[in-house]
Amino acid sequence: MQQGARGNHVALRRFQSAMADDTDKLTRFFSGGADDRGRTFDEILGWDDARLEMAHDCIQWIFPLPQRSGANPDAPVLDRENIAAIRNSPEMQQRLRAAFERMLAFYGFALDGNAVAAGPKFAAASRNWLHAGNHNHLRLTRMLRSLRVLGLEREAAALWEALRSLYDRESAAGRRTITAETFGFWQQAASSSLTTRTSR
Question: Domain map of the chain by residue range?
Answer without folding.
Answer: 2-191
